[in-house]
Specification:
Radius of gyration: 12 Å
Helix content: 55-70%
Number of helices: 6
Number of domains: 1
Largest sheet: none
Order of helices and strands: HHHHHH
Distance between the termini: 26 Å
Length: 82
């Protein structure tokens, strides 16, 4: 994984962000946090990760806040490929 400074400058999609976390506990923590903040099941979150479904605006905003902890410059359009 890249250092924190490099990560904050990169552009990244939701799927790629999760991929960077996948082999660590932060990946599980990320999924759990998204489920809690968006009040959805893990299945819904995984569908978002795969790009099968795009979450509604409020859920996208909640996810964006989580991802911006590591990628402050990320936009909603970048993250969700919209």
């Amino acid at each position: 994984m890249q250092n924190s400074k490099d990560m904050k400058k990169r552009r990244i999609t939701l799927s790629a962000y999760y991929g960077e976390l996948k082999h660590k506990n932060p990946a599980k923590e990320f999924i759990t946090e998204v489920c809690q903040k968006c009040d959805v099941t893990k299945q819904s979150v995984y569908k978002w990760m795969k790009g099968e479904i795009i979450p509604d605006k409020l859920k996208r905003e909640a996810i964006l806040k989580i991802v911006r902890k590591d990628y402050p410059q990320i936009t909603e359009n970048e993250l969700f490929n919209i």
